UniProtKB/TrEMBL annotation:
Superkingdom: Bacteria
Pathway stated in the Swiss-Prot or TrEMBL entry: Cofactor biosynthesis; adenosylcobalamin biosynthesis; precorrin-2 from uroporphyrinogen III: step 1/1; Porphyrin-containing compound metabolism; siroheme biosynthesis; precorrin-2 from uroporphyrinogen III: step 1/1
Broad class of enzyme this protein falls into: transferase
GO biological process, any: cobalamin biosynthetic process
The encoding gene: cobA
Pfam families according to UniProt: TP_methylase
UniProt KW keywords: Cobalamin biosynthesis, Methyltransferase, Porphyrin biosynthesis, S-adenosyl-L-methionine, Transferase
Lineage summary: Bacteria, Pseudomonadati, Pseudomonadota, Alphaproteobacteria, Sphingomonadales
EC number: 2.1.1.107
PROSITE patterns, per database record: SUMT_1
Domain Tetrapyrrole methylase residue range list: 8-217
Protein name per Swiss-Prot or TrEMBL: uroporphyrinogen-III C-methyltransferase
Amino acid sequence: MNNSTPGTVYLVGAGPGDPELLTLRAARLLAAASLVVHDGLVDPAILGMIRPDARRISVAKSRSRHSLPQEEINALLVREALSGKDVVRLKGGDPFIFGRGGEEVEACRAAGVRVEVVPGISAAIGCAAEAQLPLTHRDASSAVTFVAGQCKGLTDQDWSGLAGKGRTLVIYMGVATASDIADKLMADGVSPATPVAVLEKGTRGDSRAMRSLLADLGDMVVREGVKSPALIVVGEVVLRSNAKDKLAAIAAYAESLA
């Protein structure tokens, strides 16, 4: 029988990539942790902040492969904490924005394990800031919506109202389905001439920010060889960014609004 006092699970947001964007709390926890369970997209520079003698467990996920199913990750966190260890669960971006942090918190609470969430700068906030793309703007957008581009039943969902005049739509994990996303938005009433931006590997050394029009989104992703991680932003605020134009028509569209 294990008589150890249970440890604490810390769900820590690693931010979008740049180590300088970590919170002080996150940096202190990484420096002190003896066990870190981390996602695959966490930047190596951030992993380098973990103390050298700490045990590391990668639970990397990709679109087609998970090193551990989510249920097993939950069980791992609970098992290690119940054995008396404090566990840092390091997640890209923010744990509660498409990070499955809610599931891990619920598993810990159900097992009687103390859990603490340390927020991180979300990919949307960090990548948009680097591209000088204001997600809201008094003259262009008063509402922002975050959606997952790899969600099940994409074609069955009603995306009408999520993008259009006065609104900004941010799509996570949408590179592989960019063409379908564009078709879906246009089918639900969004103008093909709506500006879009793709923010690839934001805040990292090899980041790119590019913009076009919704009708060109799928083609642009293919032409430019966009790879994950990348965000798609849909809305007029795109025109206020420093992203590079990838379609001549977008410059003409911007001039028509001036």
